[in-house]
Write a structure and sequence with these properties.
The chain has 436 residues and is an alpha+beta fold. The chain has two domains: 154 residues; 237 residues, Alpha-Beta Plaits, CATH 3.30.70. Helix content is 48%, strand content 17%. It is built from 14 helices and eleven strands. The strands form two sheets. Strands 5-6-11-10-7-9-8 form a seven-stranded mixed sheet, sandwiched between helices. Strands 2-1-4-3 form a four-stranded antiparallel sheet, with helices on both faces. β5 and β6 form a beta hairpin. α1 packs antiparallel against α2 and α1 runs antiparallel to α6. The chain is rod-shaped, with a radius of gyration of 42 Å. The protein starts with a helix and ends with a helix.
């Protein structure tokens, strides 16, 4: 579950970075569009001014007449972005200058506006020029009609801010929708995982002894000081007609546990160097070699304890009748890998068994997985028995969990009507026994 959460967080972070990058590009694009639109409007105003100026100059032959000044003032007032309008001749210098700012107008009058544009252009302004040919009587005069205008105004900034606000509202709305969808999907998965919930009347699993007395054999993992006198306790309940939980009165063969699962005696120090894939996987079966199982199982348990998560173990026993065990394991491994995508957590175990470590899943979720893989194997013509155990908030090492899964598998083998058996331990009772 935590892995899925990390994937969701990383995916959302990448999506957010992509969104912010697109937003930055959009802002630059909109600023450029505002500047382009403002330039077009100013150029249109200057063209209209040039037509009126030509007509009036043909009548007066001068830029100092009142009608000519009125034309310039009207153009300046009708276009709010215009700051200064200047008419300049190459031979006669500045012929006409009118502006909304005395500072800009003074610069234009002294010729600075046309000579050094970068010095006189305030931030957020731009210049546009338009050549105009004038005629009066027999005189021809070519002038340059120039204007200083606001290329990006405060009104444009306000409009852009509103656009950005709408985009952010859409982004947050999409985020809420994604959270809602993720929550619904997680809830549905949780409901599906609970599909193996206990149903029917409870009953105790029979003990391994022929008598009806409880089997109270010591639970041994190879260490004399590790809850030797404790025992699995609980109850057995049928699930979906073929899956059974049990805890109490279960007979674990001590002889099979001693020595075989003694981690302190058998487990090698963890090698921090990565194992080459060719050495990790068995060429004959496609599964991880048995020699790496205990080490990896121990590390997964430690990781689950560090992150306050659960970890489950599936021990799959395959029925081998008249066939070579390696061939059966090789036929089963693709089915196991399809159901459990973490291939490095599926191991050879003994001659006819497969051990699958399922991180971040409790016994109920592991039960659903076991039921699915059981059906997959059955469809492929392979008969299997499955034993399940989980950490269930207990401070355990690999040995006891492996013993529980092995005991569950033994019970499944003895009871063909229950091919899938899950060992559900009681954490409270485990703690009571641990601190005796």
């Amino acid at each position: 579950m935590e892995r899925n959460q990390r994937h969701i967080i990383i995916g959302y972070a990448v999506f957010t970075l992509f969104f912010l990058s697109c937003l930055f590009v959009f802002i630059l694009f909109r600023i450029d569009m505002f500047s382009f639109e403002n330039k077009k409007k100013v150029e249109t105003s200057l063209r209209e001014l040039s037509y009126d100026m030509k007509t009036q100059f043909g009548i007066d032959g001068s830029f100092g007449s009142d009608p000519m000044s009125a034309i310039f003032r009207d153009t300046l007032n009708l276009e709010p972005r215009l700051l200064v309008i200047v008419v300049e001749s190459k031979d006669h210098g500045i012929l006409k200058a009118i502006g909304k700012s005395k500072e800009y107008l003074a610069n234009a009058q002294f010729g600075d506006y046309s000579r050094d544009v970068s010095y006189n252009k305030p931030t957020g302004t731009a210049e546009v020029n338009l050549p105009v040919s004038l005629h009066y009587s027999e005189q021809n005069l070519t002038v340059r009609l120039s204007a200083l205008y606001i290329s990006f105004s405060s009104r444009d900034s306000t409009a852009l801010i509103w656009e950005i606000l709408y985009i952010f509202l859409g982004f947050f709305g999409l985020t809420l929708l994604m959270i809602l969808i993720t929550s619904l999907v997680s809830r549905k998965r949780g409901t599906d995982s609970g599909g193996g919930a206990v149903s029917g009347s409870s009953r105790r699993a029979p003990s391994g002894d022929s008598s009806n007395e409880k089997a109270r054999r010591p639970y041994h993992n190879g260490s004399d000081d590790f809850y030797n006198e404790s025992e699995p306790t609980g109850k057995s309940e049928p699930v979906s007609g073929e899956i059974e939980f049990f805890e109490d009165n279960f007979d674990i063969n001590e002889a099979s546990v001693q020595g075989e699962y003694d981690l302190d005696a058998r487990q090698q120090p963890i090698n921090e160097k990565p194992v080459p894939p060719g050495r990790l996987y068995s060429e004959s079966t496609g599964l991880v070699r048995n020699q790496f199982f205990l080490e990896r199982f121990e590390s997964e348990i430690e990781r689950s304890v560090s992150f306050h998560q659960d970890v489950s173990l599936l021990l799959i026993g395959l029925e081998i009748t008249g066939r070579h065990a390696t061939a059966v394991l090789r036929e089963s491994s693709p089915i196991i890998h399809r159901r459990f995508p973490l291939h490095d957590l599926s191991f050879e175990y003994e001659q006819d068994r497969i051990a699958v470590i399922i991180p971040d899943e409790d016994i109920d979720a592991a039960l659903v997985q076991a039921k699915a893989v059981y059906k997959d194997l059955e469809t492929a013509g392979l008969k299997a028995r499955i034993g399940i155990a989980s950490r269930n908030n207990r401070m355990l090492r690999a040995g006891p969990l492996l013993s529980e899964a092995k005991g569950a598998l033994q019970y499944a083998v003895k009871n063909p009507s229950n091919p899938i058996v899950a060992f559900r331990a009681d954490p409270k009772k485990f703690q009571d026994n641990l601190f005796l």
